[in-house]
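Follow-up to my post from last week.
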Amino acid sequence: MFAVEKIRADFPLLTQKINDQPLVYLDSAATSQKPQSVIAATELFYTQQNANVHRGRHSLSEQATTAYEKARDKVAQYFNVQSREIVWTKGATEALNLIACGLTEQLDKNSSIVITPLEHHANIVPWQQLALKTGAKLHILPLEADATFNMSACIEFLKQIKPTVLALTHASNALGNITNLSPLLSTVKGFNTITIVDGAQGAMHLQPDLNILDCDFYVFSAHKMLGPTGVGGLYGKYERLNALLPYQTGGEMIETVSLFNSTFRDAPAKFEAGTPNIAGVIGFSAALDYLSELDKNAAYDYEQGLFNYAVNKLNEIDGITIYSNLEHNIGTICFNYKDEHPFDIATLLDGFGVAVRSGHHCTQPLMVHLGINGSVRASFCFYNTHQDIDIFINALHECIALLD
Amino acid sequence: MNKTFKEIAQTLKNAPGWQQKYREIMLLGKLLPSMPDILKTHDALVPGCESKVWLYLDFDLEESCIVLVGDSDTRIVKGLLALILSLYNGLTPTQILSINAFEEFEKLGLISHLSPSRGNGVKAIVERIQTMAAQK
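User reply:
Got it. Predicted complex:
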């Protein structure tokens, strides 16, 4: 039995009232709420530990550096990779940009980049830019009309293209669909393809063992994993990682500088120019502690239970269309009610204290693929309850009554 | 249609509870005639809104009063748009500049997220009207 009340007590924000009603937070795909331990660690850092890292020999700086590097070790442990393969960024978006920019010299007009229609804009636009800069050709993996994978067709496609770069999501932010990565990654193994997985949604819910998954890069955002905003990072297989061009220059990443020439340090320092988000990293460290103490399997099963419960309740409502895959999903439901605008539904739900996302979810090509302008998205986390879903469904009934 | 802002404001003030306020606002939207497609140009789209909002502005023949036509693909924003149009339509540029829509909205006691914010586009719509009036 998953002790959700005990978990909820760790998340102070969840006791808030919105419009005089208890908050029902169903927008964890946008950002997760933070446990008290993360808030406390951030406060402790600023009240007692604040100093710059990797500079100065004084005690505070040494302590800050140790804590900062320990966080890197924790991320490495979380994903079962080496610490030197983890680079801090300000989030998954910057991580994807860092990789795409870093590959500029490795691609040319004979290269090919494959992405999917499922991707978040952050996993589309950097690749478009890279294609523009290098002359590489951008290809789109052919998905089914409902944005699921016809695996044999996709494998056939990859065999034909033999991509230089394959970038795809671990779980769709709009739909919650989990990508079955292994057959796709193993298909391109023989082509020396550089593989990038967007883990913004998958990193917390699915906690991949990257040693087993065997992709070249995996990006994540701390704020979707109980951590602070403005921090995240990427894993890169060391050879591949160190082969990237520096993304920004100056500060931390420098080995030597003369007035006309500079040499750079090796990864990960090579990609961490300037003073990093130290407090963010320290807060994220506490989030990783929280996640490591959590029974992840029980949490996952619990989330799946919430998801199925909500799907069944939604399906009882006449006029609801669900776009998410119901078999393999991290706990995100993308839906519409008749031809009502998602903005209206989300605005009315907010009146009942229910927080959902509406719009295109930064996945315009996916919306086009699905033939819709946008949707309502309810996303769950292990701190949500069945009661949250009851309130959400009741509120939705009330909204429908207002709209019909 | 053709309800004055004052009349609308009274109805909204009298509405018991937020659901009823929303109902009234959506009703206002329903009463606002659809904008002819020919006016729904790219230039008429108001940027910075989560929903689609079109606003066509012109001045009448004597160049004295503003003529506003607007539409939105959402019921709530269309209702808010109707509210804004009732506030500004037919006014002279000087009158337009003297009316602070945000203050008027505040007085209506609309719940927090109906207050002018980027998301619902109210701010962008009002700014476009004010800018046009200032250029006259």
